[in-house]
Amino acid sequence: MSTTSVPRFVRADGPDKVTGSGRYTADLTLTGTLVAKFKYAEVSHARIARLDVSAARAIPGVFAVLTQDDVPDVRFGPFVQDRTLFARDVVRFEGEIVAAVAAIDVPTAQRALNAIVVEYAPLPVVNDIEAALAADAPLVHEGWSQYGAADVLVRERNDASFASIAKGDVERGMAEADTVVHSRYVADGCHAAPIEPRAVVAQWEGNKVTIWTTTQVPFDARAGVCETLEMPASRVRIIVPHLGGGFGGKCGFHYEAHVAALAKATKRPVRLVFSRREEFIAPDRRREGIVFDFETGVKADGTIVARKVWLAIDNGAYTADAGFFSQLAAMHALGPYQVPNALAEAHLVYTNHQPSGSVRAPTAPQTCWALESHTDEVAKAIGMDPVAFRIKNAVATGKEGPSGQVYDEIGLVDCIEAATARAGYGDDLPDDEAIGVAIGWWPSFSAASGAYVKIDGDGSGQIITGAQECGTGAVMTLRQLVADELGMQPEDFELVYQDTSAAPYDMGATGSQTLFNNGRAAIAAAGQIAEQLKQLAADMLEASPADIVLADGAASVAGTPSRSVPITELAGIAAGGELLIGHGSGVPPAAQEVSGATCIGDVGMTAWVAPQFSCHAVRVKLDRDTGVARVLHVSTAHDSGTIINRIGATGQVEGGVMMGIGQALTEGTRYNDEGQQRNAALLEYKLQTCADAPPIDIHFVEINTPNAGPRGAKGLAEAPNVATAAAIANAIAKIAGTPIRQLPMTAERVWETMNTEGSPA
Amino acid sequence: MSDIVNYHLTVNGMDYPVNAAQGRNLLSVIRAEVGLTGTKEGCDDCECGACMVLLDGQPVNSCSFLAVQAQGRAITTVEGLQQGDEMHPLQRNILEEGGVQCGFCTPGMLLSATALLERNPSPTEEDVRIGLSGNLCRCTGYAKIVAAVQRTAAELHP
Ligand code: FES
Ligand code: FES
Predict the structure, then answer these.
(1) CATH T-level fold of B89-156
(2) Is there a cis peptide before residue A744, judged by omega within 30 degrees of 0?
(3) Using CB atoms, which residue from A10, A24, A195 is nearest to B96?
(4) Which residues of B touch A242 (CB under 8 A)?
(5) How far is A6 from chain B (nearest CA, A)?
(6) Is A537 left (phi over 0), alpha (psi -120 to 50) or beta?
(7) Taking the mean position of all CA atoms in its chain, how far away is CA A247?
(8) Rounded to the nearest 5°, which phi and psi values hold at A172?
(9) Strand partners, A39
(10) CB-based contact (8 Å) between B78 and chain A?
(11) Beta-carbon neighbour count of residue A241 at 10 Å?
């Protein structure tokens, strides 16, 4: 239970959502809408020997069957241009699209899929991350060296992005250590699994297309359509109706271009709605599996002197937005610790699996799980309490982190102290229970962002923003910021959002950046209207604009509240003259330069603007006979800067922690020998239910962060997902007597670990 | 097509003539034929509870229920919870407690909770947690939803 008191904040989109009147993409129907369906590869790696869609095209009620031959021959991808809309010559994972059908109804579309003839010549399946790095491993992309790619990426055969962070002299550091601990961990991939499956509806008018879609990043989706269908941005309009969750899984550019191409070919609106199975196998956004190798050298007094990490990330068949994952994972693997001598080497490895991509704090929960499990091993090896060990070595205000960034005011140590104290760390517990502790960090992402604000003649306002709401409430909070700026009430404003043709650019619901960047933009836009209102009031009240105060729905002369005019009245005056319209963007805060570390494959992830910190302390009960772990209580402390919308913020922590519990115990993709997913259904994949959810204590360490977002806010949506699985792991390890080296830590794996010869039981 | 059948469904007290293939599930008929899209599809496989409706007050996953078999029974969807312009206390409380994020699980959650409070007007927290365990929510971590149901129970049965 949250112990913070929450003011009643009813979200603007709330009434639509609780009454069923809110429209999500799959709820839309346009006259003459056709049904879209995709033909998937189903095999993981093969050359297409024959693809014949003529029989499918001949079926009555089938309006179009498209393949790569029917769309511009464009390779796309934000980091490596390694993908085409439809498979060309080779399929590289089971969810790759070979053809798309538009038909009058679902049964006809299904018949068309069945009538498509595809013959495959099998290619060797690359199913193992480490084996894929071998010099003689089969290549996932024969033509990798010919692909266009971001200049900074270091690529070689199946390694799509190599990155390293090196500081000091790691060998000398290890030689100076009193104890060196070596550990290996393996994390399985897992899924964002929003409850709403993807849907896309496209309709053309003349040479312009409107696409309603379940994207978290409307402008990115638009860019993808423009790139692959070779159109200018001005002719593509992306609208997102209410979005049923994303967690990163709906970032990037997905099927908007396929559906637009079908709609163009058929001259009809076309609608695609994913099944749950498609949701599991097809998108190029799932959380990446990673193999880790850690070595840490410590002094007998508990000072870390050196850390060396090697890790390999499952990129899957295409790079999607994962190009920056290697450096980001390297940062997480070194961790929020003062490490004078550090070397992290990270590889992003092509396999014939579903592509990886940003899912809520990409690379962080699994890397935190591995590093923090290793950290407890290190503390145990020198006989030191793991919490004291963390406090001794954690980054702190004025201290230098593993990449050479020297931190401004940060609250990590406060987080550790608060979370452990509130959890009752150190109190006696039954012998089948323990409290595990882990710390995590996450950047705030600084980016360009825009918004307009207008106030109409009746005094009601609109915030027209490029920002995207995916459930977190970040866009909802804009009303509060704008209202405060203008001395009005949040309810005075409606939000116009999620429409690329209505509003200026925003990066979207990604990187926990909405409030951080769009909040700045909305405040700037409101500020312009504040100036207008002050001028109008000053003219009317015969005062100087500098003396006008906007509060409680009125403009008043400072110190003389009787000289006052309601804002609605000023709005009425403006409606007949210069309209009340503001636009804002603001300058994104810049990250500090780092020094003292050298980085290969540098994608800008080593210095973080307004970094967020967290500590989770989790009490777990473990049934030693079955290996079943149950989370009894979670205590969280977060430094995410100033909390502006407390009910939204606590909701992010609760949701993030629950996702972390799922990742810790049940959620993991299992592959067969052919690289196909074996548990692509909710029951087999197993999300946490209401009955599984433990009480969650929430504490925010609110300190004054330099260079933060509006009013000192940092991001928040991803950070609570980082440290939970790690804290659970450390609790289980305490009870089991040994760490569990695979994630998720299923009952089978825990039992097996405890019953393997040589493990202390 | 030969398997098209004509029948009537009573949804939120209104009678709807339906003309649809015999094998259609209740979810797709409510959404596409009756025209009420508040009921959501999350899996079409009885795994998520997003499609939950009430049949004579009993919660049912409408994706896994044949529409023709709902003839003659009172079907309640999320659109039927409101009385005129007044929100049901559960709707108001789930908003005020912050139990709605993306909102995709919300309709099913609300109907599940309605049935629960009907069965058990003063549930313990444990009762609520077990009662809602057929409704997956990926956003909220459930705490605020449970709080909303408990608050509603306390308001209705002080
Ligand atoms: S859609 Fe019916 S249970 Fe998921
Ligand atoms: S609010 Fe998003 S799934 Fe429950």
Answers:
(1) DNA polymerase; domain 1 (1.10.150)
(2) yes
(3) A10
(4) 102-103
(5) 9
(6) alpha
(7) 5
(8) -65, -40
(9) A99
(10) yes
(11) 18
Residue A214's pLDDT is: 98
**Residue B62: what residue type?**
S
Candidate from A280-289, A483-492, A543-552, A583-592 with smallest mean pLDDT: A583-592
To test the pocket of ligand 2, the residue of A18, A195, A647, A652 to mutate (highest count of ligand atoms within 8 Å of its CB) is A195
Token pair of A688 as six digits: 């946490």
Average pLDDT of every residue of chain A: 95
Task: Find where tokens 């001949």 sit.
Answer: A58
Looking at the domain that runs over A25-123+198-273, which CATH code has it been given? Answer: 3.90.1170.50
> Any CB–CB contact under 8 A between B127 and chain A?
no
How close does chain A come to B110, measured CA to CA in Å? 8
Q: What band does A5 get if pLDDT is binned at 50, 70 and 90?
A: very low
CB atoms within 10 A of CB A327: 28
Whole-angstrom distance, CA of residue A556 vs CA of residue A547: 8
d(CA A760, CA A753): 9
Q: Where would I find the H helices in A25-169? A: 54-57, 106-115, 129-132
User: Would you say A518 and A504 are in contact if contact means Cβ atoms under 8 Å apart?
Assistant: no
Q: Would you state the pLDDT for residue A593?
A: 73
A195, A472, A653: residue with CB nearest B138: A195
For domain A290-445+593-755, the question of CATH label 3.50.50.60 is answered with: no
Please give the C-alpha separations between residue A274 and each of A199, A278, B42, in angstroms, as whole numbers. Answer: 6, 6, 9
Structure tokens at B62: 């409408």
What DSSP element (H or E) covers A600?
A: strand A597-600
**Per-domain residue ranges for chain A?**
25-123+198-273, 290-445+593-755, 447-584
User: End-to-end CA distance of chain A, in Å?
Assistant: 33
For residue B141, give the nearest of A632, A743, A179, A651 by alpha carbon. A651
Q: Where are the domains of chain B?
A: 4-80, 89-156
Residues A297, A383: Cα–Cα separation, whole Å: 14
CA distance A411 to A446: 20
- Interface pTM (ipTM) of the complex? 0.98
- The DSSP H or E segment spanning B113 is helix B106-119
CATH class of the region B4-80: alpha beta
Question: Do A290-445+593-755 and A447-584 share a fold?
Answer: yes
CATH code: domain A447-584 is: 3.30.365.10
Confidence of residue A594 (pLDDT cuts 50, 70, 90): confident
pTM: predicted TM-score of the whole model, two decimal places: 0.96
Q: Which among B79, B87, B142 has the least Cβ separation from residue A658?
A: B142
* Secondary structure (3-state) at A292: strand
